[in-house]
Design goal:
mainly alpha, Four Helix Bundle (Hemerythrin (Met), subunit A), about 0% strand
Length: about 150
Amino acid sequence: MKPELLDLIDEAFDKKSWHGPNLRASVRGVDARQAAWRPAPGRHNVWELTLHAAYWKYAVRQRLTGAKRGSFVVPGSNFFSRPVEASESAWKADVAILMNEHRQLRRALIELPAARWREPKTLRLIRGIAAHDLYHAGQIRLLRRLCPE
């Protein structure tokens, strides 16, 4: 395992870093109303971006481990229409999916055989999921600022 690559995904997700808010910090303190708000019809909201990020953590884990896809906790793939139920408990449940998918991805990386850490494909996936988290963290921060009080 390359600890610096594990640090990379942690900094993008939930550890202190130089660049400011990471993905976890971006959703912290968001309530269901803010999470469901859309800047315009047909645009994604914080809730959808949160579940989208969880899905891609799952997809990267599946690619790294060779596990069969199709077992994500929410039916579908990529983007999921949210909210289905606009309640605080439903929002918190979807945030918990994000947290759980990050934990499972970390576990898969820690258990990855050493030889796999040298493969370009593995390195691209790890760098990619970190960049993905930061990209959506920025989108979420912007949506939070735009959301009316």
